[in-house]
Amino acid sequence: ECSPVLLCALRAPDAFPALAAALQGWTQGRDSLCTGHSLPQALMALTPEVTFRQAFLFFTEEDLVSGKALLMSVVSEHTKLTQICFSPLEAGSWRCRAESLFSYLQAGAQVVCTVLLLKPGLWSRGLPAILRLLHLEKFSVVGMKHLDLDVTSASTLLPWEVQQDPAAAEAHCAYLTSGTALVLCLQRPNAVKKLMDLLGPEDPQLAQALDPCLWRAQYGTSTVQNGFYGSRSYPMAVRDVKLFFPEGLCCAQCQTVQEQEV
Predict the structure, then answer these.
(1) How far apart are CA 84 and CA 73, in angstroms?
(2) Given this model, what pLDDT does residue 57 score?
(3) In what residue span(s) does the Nucleoside diphosphate kinase-like domain sit (predicted)?
């Protein structure tokens, strides 16, 4: 006899690896409690193409964006599952701002902006090669300026774990304020993650061990003098664009950036 199943359409940044990690943790916890098959099993689509085909097979537009009470499962950046339930009134108001999930899947990745900062001493000798690498990775440069960072601006660029270590934070700020830096605003689909993937870990030695082609492996010499700063998330990219380019960019800003600012 067949048992009913629960179908969920989920949407989140890096949805596939995030959901896979969450399900792996859930499965391990489940298996430690029971060795039988009485507890639920979970399956997920592995590619965007399969996701679209299965979503179209099992859901309609009304199922995904409706005026009824809406239940969503959200994967946070720490891969913890959270559920949010909107009342009918809240769901109706939210629907006015939601786009069709099918249209979103068909449209593909949105063009967004991110910020790349070339730390003092690097850009004056490595700029032509770096600009060529950006071109090969299909980034468009929509903002560029060189500037001398003050301590306040430099401290906002430090990773959270560095900010918790006064000695490390002082060393990073001293280097960032030791000379002129070059700041680029870059644009392409999935720009934030793509740039992070190219830069690699903050530690150049770890980057070298992972892949010698990573940019910090090629241009970094230490965790302080690691060549680059890049916006680590989309909200941070929006913050960095507003911080370094308050006068605007050389082209119209992405709609998604404007929405995030609102």
Answers:
(1) 7
(2) 81
(3) 111-251
Name the fold adopted by 111-245. Answer: Alpha-Beta Plaits (3.30.70)
Residues 6+ apart with CB under 8 A from 103: none
pLDDT digits (tens, 9 = 90+) for 197-231: 999 999 999 999 999 999 999 999 999 999 999 99
Q: Residue for token digits 């960072």? A: 149
Predicted model pTM: 0.63
90 three-state secondary structure: helix
Q: Where are the domains of the chain?
A: 1-26+44-85, 111-245
Q: Could you give the C-alpha distances from 101 to 75, 77, 142, in angstroms and in order?
A: 17, 21, 29
Contacts of 186 (CB under 8 A, 6+ apart): 113, 114, 115, 116, 134, 139, 140, 141, 142, 195
